[in-house]
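Hi,

I'm pasting everything inline rather than attaching a file, because the server keeps stripping attachments. The sequence lines come first, and each chain or strand is labelled.
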Amino acid sequence: MVFAKLFAGLKKTRDVLAAGLGRLFALGRKLDDEFLEELEGVLFAADLGPTGAQIVQRIQEAYRRREITTVEEVYPFLRRELLARLQGCAGSLARAPQGPTVILVVGVNGSGKTTSIAKLTKHLVDQGHKVLLGAGDTFRAAAVEQLSLWAERLGVPIVKQATGADPAAVAYDAAAAALARRVDYLVLDTAGRLHTQKNLMEELKKIVRVVQKQIPGAPHETLLILDAMTGQNAIRQAAEFAKAAPITGLLLAKMDGTAKGGAVFGIREHVDLPVKFLGVGETIDDLEPFAAEPFVDAILAQAAQQGAGA
Amino acid sequence: MFDSLAGALGRAYQALVGKKTLTEANIEEGIRAVRQALLEADVHFQVAKDFVKDVKARALGQNVIQSVDPGHQFVKLFHDALTDLLGGAVTELPVADPPPLVLLMAGLQGSGKTTTCAKLALWLKRKKKKNPFLVAADLQRPAAVEQLCTLGKQLQIPVYQEGTGARPPELCARGIAEARRLRHDVVILDTAGRLHVDDALMREVQEVHARCKPHATLLVCDSMLGQDAVNSAKAFHERLPLYGVVLTKVDGDARGGAALSVKAVTGRPILFVGTGEKPDDLEEFDPPRMAGRILGMGDVVGLVEKAQEVIDQKEAERAAEKMRRGQFTFDDFLKSMNMIRKLGPLKKVLGMLPGVGAALKDIDLDDARFQRVEAMILSMTPFERRNPDSVDIQRRRRIAAGSGNEVQAVHDLVKQFKMMQKLMQSFGKGGLPSLPEGGLPGAGKPGRGPQPRGPGGVLPPGGGGLRDFLNRRR
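And the predicted assembly:
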């Protein structure tokens, strides 16, 4: 069941409509300014930010062109608009033509990198792949220990150095070990860094260079881990990280809360990165490949409930 | 934070230039720009709506003061409304009688609880002369206990831990008993991160609260959160009576609007903000000052306070005296520069000056330049440092090679140094030029907190010259 967790309690789109959007899209409601303002509020509540305002404007235009005449027609229009903005997102991982595939994992502090790596590793191990972990967060106290514990639980090898070591050196060792051990995937952790810290973004570039030197074409996949609760700052994060590393996709962590990651729409517009995975719970199996339709439906449901509650 | 809000206010101000009074019509556009900026800064939808309504009501209720230009009036009332939104005045931690003061830290995963626990302990130790004690009760996240223990060791603050086998409520109670036995006056309980919808974990933290009866429960809140911040804060507040909020990661470029909405929704104030990765990067939250910073008015009071903390007054005066007499050497220059470095990253320091924050946004100020200057000076012989005139081309080549720089860099350093020397001499006994008496305009409102003092006597001399120097080398 894809997205089973995401939909906890909201089985079908129809139920969703009845529960949340139902109030907004109530039968017989007039398509007027009041309705549009309320809809804009709902979209803002979902962290869509200026994208929300844009969509409302598109609805207004469609109304003027007589493409939409009633409130009932707004919902499918809205859904189409949102889906169109997620085209090209899919839960697949790149694979190196030969040798180990390197997955580099980056993100701001506290976004959920280490936990996401554990989930991703489990996902790969379950598919029968040989995985090696690289403990590249040498900055935060006990981060190496945290990843080591996961490696132990998952039964995968890990390359590590002491806290305070040069993360590029760890990356070098890990890449060398990945080649020597002929693993399928090397998943490389990095320290959390705010995208505004110039020197740390430079450090990230160095890590990429070092890995590239060892394994041409690597990193084959660079995932930016994004806390689903992040607001409009997510766009800045994505833009700055994309400047420092060849980001190939997003992993939205902490989707099991009440936030549904609406900030990705802004990212799509400004940085054009696909969403690849969702972290949907606290256990190691709670990782789901991304699929646009249920994602959009969950956003609409959640937003409407919050919009109505506000 | 909030750079676009300052921009929107600027537009509102522009619209009012030349107008005689504030009317519904002439503030309309400004109000709309402000609302948009608030929403883009992740301020909660409802909070933004209420805030805009509040500003409008204040604006239209204003008595017409003929002598004051309506643009300024609008900015002033906006500043006041923002100050109120941010909580009005500084909120302090409660006082425990008898000690120890028990603080419970709670929050979502990844909000920065463990780091904040360590920072807060250090802050209490340094600023309040307390003897804090940490309790490692995050038994969920792998290696969280080790993380707190490592931080405790670094900061020389004892940490109570029982590994991950115990249950948090009992563990915390035992931790507090231990703190009492060892006569600590503050106990900080680090709990696991939890989602507000996770019933089991929420019940667990409630149990910790019931058992330990903390004097204050602080919600640690990431400033990058979006609209959902309000939902989670509300849920936490329903389960745990919150005393206040610690806002983390404000050193990023998040506008922090959602976290600020938390104040509006829960009614609980923000007490502290985390401003960087180092353990001493924690500041008390000061609403009027923050409102000023948001509106680009800078934070001169904060800068002066920080300067007083790290700068050796006598040393600064001695340097100033030498400079006046034209006896300023490379050694003095290095000392002055290192004092400025102690203030923190240059961008952060300059960002506290009025109007500078926004201008600096996209400018890349590289603190490594300080290091290069230091390397060059340290590559000089004591004789050369005392006699800048002696540094001829051969010496310059040696200095360049010794410090790993181009010869041109040494040329620049010597040239700038001499220029600065001449400049400083010509100022004679006037102290630092270009800074008006009594601080800078727009900083701090009378009656709130310490008055800004003229930084002349506090900042090390040569700041301006050094800044120019660093900029010109780019």
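Residues 91 and 289 of chain A are 4 Å apart (CA to CA).

If the labels don't parse on your end, tell me and I'll reformat.
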